[in-house]
Design goal:
The chain has about 240 residues and is of the alpha/beta class. Helices cover about 40% and strands about 10% of the residues.
């Protein structure tokens, strides 16, 4: 299929829509392959190393070795750090770790426990520990295409996303946007990939220790993150 030129897709909504129409017809691995072939570089995959992150990490890593950006807040679960080590070794990842310029201890001394200070505190915490480090990572690595493993069924905000979008002058690709838990499970089993270690203990969305709860502790899945006050940390809505 003849697709609009890259520069045209970057600046013209109609051209970007043509790309999305074509991407919908492709499988997730084909979407990754097309992006790596046709979209500009450098490209990178950003991963939280959450419950089902091995899918996107494997899908991109087996197509091409690109930087994998991890934002380390300093408050991840011990099991998450172990999961990072496991997948880095298993998939030979080019891991790039970014953090806030202010350490967790210094932040608590300066601001208190921001995650206990309502929505405004959570937003400030996320800006300092997630959004700003991600902006810095994308800028320092000169990333022009950001691969992301988000899915439409994860939140109402994500339900509106296209497979390919333009965010602050760079492409953002969501290859598994239309996948569900069953599709994820099949892929993991097919390729011998693990779930996050906390998946089997009831954690379905895994972030920081202090703002993540297992499904058994809440009445609605949206309450598993940020006490139900927020669903998004800002990485996929502001960065």
């Amino acid at each position: 299929m003849s697709l609009p030129a890259i520069d045209e897709a970057l600046h013209a909504p109609a051209a970007l829509a043509e790309w999305n129409t074509h991407l919908v017809s492709l499988s997730a691995p084909e979407r990754v392959a097309l992006a790596l072939e046709r979209l500009p570089g450098p490209q990178a995959l950003a991963s939280s190393f959450g419950a089902q992150s091995a899918v996107s990490l494997h899908m991109v890593a087996r197509a091409k070795r690109v930087p994998v950006i991890l934002i380390d807040t300093g408050y991840l679960f011990p099991e998450t750090y172990q999961f990072v080590d496991q997948l880095q070794q298993q998939l030979d990842l080019d891991l790039r770790i970014y953090r806030s310029s202010t350490s967790p201890a210094w932040q608590e001394a300066r601001y208190g426990r921001l995650w206990e200070q309502g929505v405004s505190g959570l937003e400030r915490y996320n800006e300092i520990n997630k959004v700003e480090p991600m902006r810095r990572a994308l800028a320092e690595l000169s990333i022009r295409v950001w691969h992301s493993g988000v899915r439409r069924d994860q939140s109402s905000v994500r339900a509106q996303l296209p497979i390919l979008s333009v965010v602050h002058g760079r492409f953002k690709l969501h290859p598994i946007l239309d996948w569900n838990d069953r599709t994820i499970g099949r892929y993991l089993n097919q390729h011998g990939l693990p779930y996050h270690p906390l998946w089997d203990t009831g954690y379905v969305s895994i972030g920081d220790v202090h703002t993540t709860l297992p499904l058994s502790a809440v009445t609605h899945i949206d309450q598993t993150r940020f006490f139900g006050l927020k669903r998004e940390c800002g990485l996929h809505t502001a960065a």
